[in-house]
Amino acid sequence: MSTPYILVLFYSRNGSTSEMARQIARGVEMGGMEARLRTVPAISTECEAVAPSIPDTGALYATLDDLKNCAGLALGSPTRFGNMAAPLKYFLDGTSNLWLTGALVGKPASVFTSTASLHGGQETTLMSMLLPLLHHGMLVTGLPYSEAALIETRGGGTPYGASHHAGADGKRPLDPHETTLCRALGQRLAKTALLLEPSRG
User: Fold this and answer.
1) Which of 145, 146, 158, 196 is the most buried (most CB within 10 A)?
2) 58: closest CA among 88, 37, 29?
């Protein structure tokens, strides 16, 4: 039997969502679980465009088995007009077999996003990612206001999930509050997954 892990699944174009994923993974490990970082390939308007099966840099591409076998999921995307990015949506659209078999029912899930502008659709993007997870029967773990950084933040941070304000050029680094909230989200997800793991009872 393999070690239980939290799948940190994301799409990142300019690096901000990827950095959030790394901080969430650190939080997962602080919470006592293994984190598995995975991404999805970009999609193309060219009908036969093919990405290499292994990316040149960064996280490996996710498989349906990565998702099926996880103990919990953190799902992240940059904002695209208040919605998740198309590559992540494309991956999720291919999870019908997992839905039919109930493979994700009862597993905890969290979401995270990065935007160029402070009010650039962070909350609607998080909600867009939660919708398919709810259809899969996953248990949503957000960020409670007991996290002081959620009240003190002047950048990203929502009760629906972690967020980051990357700035118009996409180069603003995660500030201390955003980093704290990413780690808190990962830690909460891991602790919830441990409570739900049948073998841990």
Assistant:
1) 158
2) 37
- The residue segments making up the domain with residue 63 are 5-200
- Give the max Cα distance, the chain: 50
The first and second tokens of residue 100, run together, are 């039919």
* Pairwise CA distance, residues 75 & 73, whole Å: 6
**What single-letter amino acid sits at 27?**
G
Tokens of 17: 């969502």
148-189: pLDDT as tens digits: 999 999 999 999 999 999 999 999 999 999 999 999 999 999
CATH assignment at residue 117: 3.40.50.360
Count: domains in the chain: 1
Cα distances from 15 to residues 43, 92, 131, 135, in angstroms, run: 17, 21, 25, 29
The pTM of the full predicted model, rounded to 2 decimals, is 0.94
